[in-house]
Amino acid sequence: MKAAVVEAAGAAPTLAEFPDPPESERHTVVDLVAAGIHPIVRARVAGRHYSTSGTWPAVPGVDAVARTPDGRLVYTGFVDVPWGTMAQRMSVPSDFGTPLPDGVDPLAVAAGVNPGLASWLPLARRHEELGGTGLGSVVVLGATGMAGRLAVENALSLGATTVVAVGRNADVLAEVARRDPERIATVALTGSGDSEAMTSALAERPPTTVIDFVWGNVAEAAFRALGDPTLDTPEFDVCHIEIGTMAGADASVPGALLRSRRYTLRGSGLGGTPLAEIRRRLPEFIDRIATGAVRVPYTAFPLSRVAQAWESSNGTRAVVVPD
Questions:
Q1: pLDDT score of 100 more than 80
Q2: Per-residue CA distances from 38 to 86, 145, 250, 312 (Å)
């Protein structure tokens, strides 16, 4: 079959022939409809992600929208290495496939589930912890990437009263704010005065939740801002959820913050979320895409142009589709 193939760690994928995936009692061979080129896909190809197998050559891709033998469209993944989802066909667990609702754009699902689920899972859980009536104010650290932008939309769709979007690209932040100017505030990071800027933005909207895609010195600036004594409310109770480390693998947490505030640190990732919970929450998120509550910008490339798709950096999520 035709597939995107990576010959060695760090190499860019190219179109090539690759053995057909095996079928078994527990696996079903399905046909590609669309597969997203997500940061985790790039990190695994580069050998930087903790889930990298180190087996080469291999087909990249962790998830996809596929067509089953009986014609249904499903969101699926968990393909055994060295196969991936950026191929004409893939062998997926027979018990893992979320049917797509009528009318949803399958390419938007392929582009959006991976980055969107990163925040949907912890936000939906936090929503339940807060009684299921809303989220209050939410801070998104790293709001200018695809995952961060979808985190803003996820928070709004779950009833956040305000979202404070924090990032380095002022132009993208302005675009994010246009989604809902009355509920979205922005903080453009400059490297100096970041804590003061965050404190000012949060002065009248102390958050219940921080979604953190960057960690490092940005998280440290948020800790200082949220520990500021002028940021005062009797209901101050924050859950800081670490998802990514784009700004640094480590961050120093002030002990005074943990003593003076009800402040919880939590992580969210592949290893910390039970598969049963992912399966339960997937349809909720896909329905958000179907209704337009969450919008996913993408650019489609045929499989034959996978090399061009791999280099794409136009601010949308690249998705690979059959020729």
A1: yes
A2: 12, 11, 23, 11
- Which CA distances in Å does 121 have to 6, 148, 212? 31, 14, 13
Residue indicated by tokens 């009800």: 262
> Which residues lie closer than 8 Å to 133 by C-beta, 6 or more apart?
159
The gap between the terminal CA atoms of the chain, to the nearest Å, is: 12
Residue recorded with tokens 């990032």: 167
| Predicted pLDDT of residue 113 | 97
**Biggest alpha carbon–alpha carbon distance for the chain:** 63
Render 196-250 in DSSP notation, one character per residue: HHHHHHHTT---SEEEES-BHHHHHHHHHHHT-TTS--TT-EEEEEE---TTBS-
% of the chain residues with pLDDT over 70 = 99
Distance, CA of 61 to chain centre: 15
3-class SS at 120? helix
Q: State the pLDDT at residue 233.
A: 66
Of all residues in the chain, the percent with pLDDT exceeding 90 is 82
Burial 159-183 (b: 16+ CB within 10 A, else e): ebebbbbbbbeeebbeebbeeeeeb
69: how many CB neighbours lie within 10 A of its CB?
A: 10
Q: Is the peptide bond before 21 cis (omega within 30 degrees of 0)?
A: no
CA gap 126, 135 in Å, rounded:
8
